[in-house]
Each structure stands twice: as structure tokens, then as C-alpha cells.
Amino acid sequence: MKTLSATIKALTFAVFFFVLSAAAQAQATRTWVSGVGDDINPCSRTAPCKTYAGAQSKTAAHGEISTLDPGGYGAISITKSLTIEGTQGAGYGSILHSLTTGVTINFDNFAAVGETQKTVRLRNLNINGSGGATAANFGLRGIRITGAAAAAGSEVFVEDCVIDGSLGNPGRGIEDVRSGGGRLVVTGTTVRNMAGTGIVVIPASGATRIDATLDNVRVHNCAFGVVASSGVRMLVSNSLISNNTNHGLGVEGPNGAAEMHVTNSRIASNATGIRQDAGGTVRVANSDVVFNTANGTVGTVNSYGNNRFAGNAGASAVVAIGADTHDKGQQ
User: Fold this and answer.
1) Residue 247 CA to its chain's centroid (Å)
2) In a domain? residue 206
3) CA distance 301 to 305
4) What is the span of the domain harbouring residue 239?
5) Distance, CA of 63 to CA of 81 (rounded, Å)
6) Radius of gyration of the chain, Cα coordinates, nearest whole angstrom
């Protein structure tokens, strides 16, 4: 009996120790980072981590990483559904990404977590690719989204962010190349000073549909402004696309029809305002296309007749499609 009692006590102690250990290592729904934190910490409010990457490992799927104070929180490769809240204010939510990509989202890596609804939310972040005065140190991309996983539930929200200074190759602000499709929503965000394209949405292979919504977005001083290609359906609304050295807006469809609808926006002081290439369709409503230095438009641009084309060099080949905005199938 004494032996049995001792065995039971030992087992009880072992179970108790295991439960405590598991609880100590459990991932939290909300974690915190601080400029004076340490990644060996549990990332709690009173013992925050130092980097977003360090906090991710201690944050549960669909959890949130919050930012306590100004700091440089490092590049991150996101592997689960996650919200990163940079917090408004000078110096908060800074990601410096010399020689690399600031935020990488590969939805193929989410399979290990067993998620069916895959969602990433990036809010109030300043993603800066500056490498100083040396070109060899410049950042590559602000945000890169990849994955061949099924489109269902694969979505990215970029809200109230500034993405600046990716002057390395390919020098893109937001690059969505998911071959499995999905959704991208960018709101209240500025993308500027890119060696390549400010925002590009193009499947890495094939023409799988990606639905992209850009609202209240500003894209300035890039080689190309916004590009949609190969099966993408993109809405650009209430946005300013300006001072880009090639075209401000571009739509093409080398692997399948892509469509872009532009409304209540300003496309100004680019080389070409809007460019349509084979396989792409662009429709424009309630917008200004002005002061573009080479052409107002190139290719076929469909206008609802309520746009203003003014002060552009070269030609503006616009096709009027009337004021009827109702799909016949919906009447």
C-alpha cells in the first residue's frame, strides 16, 4: 500500500508539474513589444519582447501583437493569422529592413497551424527600407505576400501604414504574388520612394483571381505606381497616384484577363497616367487624370464620361461607356 501511495503521489506531482509547465509556455492571445524589451520575456504587458518576430512565437493564432512605445521592431516573416498593431505616434511601430523584406506573409506556412480562416492585419506601421547612403544596403520590399494555398479565407489587411524607401531590387512597396488567389485590402496607406512598383498584384503563375481593394491610398515617387495583372480584380477609390516615373496605374493580362476599376481618384504628374495592355480592362469614373508628362492614357481606357482629362502631354485614348452603371444581370 505504501508503495502504491508513493507511486500515486509521484504521478500526481508529475501531472501537476506538466500542467504548470504547459501553462507557462502557452501562447497568449495578446502580446506586447517595447523598445526596451527582450525576446526572452513572455511578451506580457509588464515583460514585453523586443521584436515582432520574437513576439510572434508567443502569440496564439489570430492573436495580436501590440506596441508599447517607440522602437525599431525588426523584419518579420508571418507564419500564422496575426494582427500587428504599431500604435499611432512618432517612432511607434517602426520596421527597418535593410537588405531584406520588411514583412513576409507566406500562406503556405499557415498549414502547420491548421487554420481554415487565414487573416493577417497590419496596422499603424512605418515600414522603412532605407539602408543609409549606401545603395547596397537598401531594402527589397515593404510587404510581400505569397502562397499557393486555396483562396478561401486567405486575406491581408494593410491599414494606416507608411511604406517607404525600398530602393533595392525589386524595390516594391506591396507585392502580392499568391498563385492560390485571395484578398488584399489596403486603406489609409502611403507608399512612396520605391525603385520598382508601389503596389503590384500579380499571381506568380497562372491567372488565379486575387481581389484587391485600395481605398484612400497614396502612391508617390515610384518607378511604377499601381499594377494589376493576370486574373486580378482591383478597385482603386479615393486615392492619389502621383509623380511616378513610368505609369501611375497599369493593368495587363498576359496569363488571363485582369480588371481595374478606378473611382474618385487623382492620377497626376506621372509619365503616363493610366496604361492598359493586352488582356487588361480598366474603367474610370469621377476621377482626374492631369499633368502627366508623356501621355494621359495608353491603350484603351473606358470612361463613364464624368472624368476630367487635362494638362496631359501626348494622347488620351478614352472610350466612353456612358453613364449606365448597372449590370444588366442585376436589373
Assistant:
1) 21
2) yes
3) 11
4) 62-325
5) 7
6) 24
Look-up of cell digits 466612353: 320
DSSP assignment letter at 72: B
Chain segment 36-95, per-residue pLDDT in tens: 999 999 999 999 999 999 999 999 999 999 999 999 999 999 999 999 999 998 889 999
Domain-located, residue 67: yes
Express each pLDDT in 305-329 by its tens digit.
899 999 999 877 688 776 544 443 3
Q: What are the phi and psi torsion angles at 34 (to 5°)?
A: -145, 150
CB 149 within 8 A of CB 108: yes
- The whole-angstrom separation of Cα 140 and Cα 172 is 7
Residue with cell 502557452: 26
Cα–Cα dist 234/225, whole Å: 14
Map grid coordinates 488620351 to a residue. Answer: 316
C-alpha cell at 143: 510587404
The one-letter amino acid at 85: E
**Residues ≥6 apart with Cβ < 8 Å to 173:** 141, 142, 143, 163, 166, 191, 192, 194, 197, 198, 199, 219, 222
22: left (phi over 0), alpha (psi -120 to 50) or beta: alpha
Cell digits for 300?
Answer: 484603351
Per-residue pLDDT, 206:
78
d(C-alpha 241, C-alpha 159), whole Å: 18
CB atoms within 10 A of CB 29: 10
Number of H helices, E strands in the chain: 2, 28
Give the chain's residues under pLDDT 70.
Answer: 1-25, 111-114, 132-136, 150-153, 317, 322-331
**Per-residue model confidence (pLDDT) at position 219:** 98
Name the strand (E) or helix (H) holding 30.
strand 28-33
Cis peptide preceding 48, ω within 30 of 0: no
Q: Domain total for the chain?
A: 1
Number of residues that make up the chain: 331
Rounded CA-CA distance 316/272 in Å is 10
**120 - beta bridge partners?**
82, 156
